[in-house]
Amino acid sequence: MLQSPAPFEPTSGIVLMEKQLLQQYVPPADWNRGSMLLRFGWFLLGKPLLASWLPGTAWRKQLLRLFGARLGRGGRVKPRVHITSPWMLRVGDHCWLGEDLWIDNLAPVVIGDQVCLSQGVYLCTGNHDYRSSTFDLRLGSITINDQVWIASKAVLAPGTQVEVGAVVVLGAVVSGVVPAGAIVRGNPAVVVGQR
Q1: Tens-place pLDDT, residues 22-40
Q2: How far is CA 162 from CA 94, 112, 193, in A?
Q3: 173 lies in some domain
């Protein structure tokens, strides 16, 4: 017979925050999510098409532009790419966007020229304040400058800036500023060399 787990009891001396009251969550008043019509069209038609297995870069770029993305010349957009808000995305010339890339851009994401975002990269521009009982949303834009490589399964946190020529290696978790030409790895990411 299975027993129910014991209720959680904090160790003595630990002070817990207020209870989470998710029913009281309110999006930030200054959060520009785009028009209701634009969001509806994107979530109903654009997003599923972009994330499909169908091959092709040209039609994907046209679809993103139709929904407000600013994309440069050339480059590749692979199948199964996920973009939350194309109207808050700017991508430079000759960039590669790999399979299963997720640009979760609740705030602007700016990507320079000649940037490679490999398979499974996650760019996260929003997080919640876990110390707030109402789990307030905190937003931070992401900027990736020219000649950067973000390797597979890497994660960039809200507010991250990656400077020119840097490399973020496989599975790294980055927050803050990555210096120009630096190679970073780990969780949290640290500089391990120069390119």
Answers
A1: 999 998 888 888 899 999 9
A2: 18, 10, 15
A3: yes
CA dist 57 and 73 (Å) reads: 12
Q: Is 90 exceeded by the pLDDT of residue 163? A: yes
Q: Is residue 140 part of a domain?
A: yes
- Residue identified by tokens 């499974």 is 120
Total of domains in the chain: 1
Q: Closest Cα partner for 179 from 158, 152, 148, 142?
A: 148
Residue 114 lies in a domain: yes
Are the CB atoms for 95 and 78 separated by under 8 Å? Answer: no
pTM of the entire structure?
Answer: 0.89
In this predicted structure, what is the pLDDT of residue 94? 98
64: pLDDT strictly greater than 90: yes
Which residue in the block uniquely carries the two structure tokens 């870069």?
57
Instruction: Return the number of other C-beta atoms located less than 10 Å from residue 20's C-beta.
Output: 14
Q: How far apart are CA 169 and CA 171, in angstroms?
A: 6
Residue 68: CATH number of its domain? 2.160.10.10
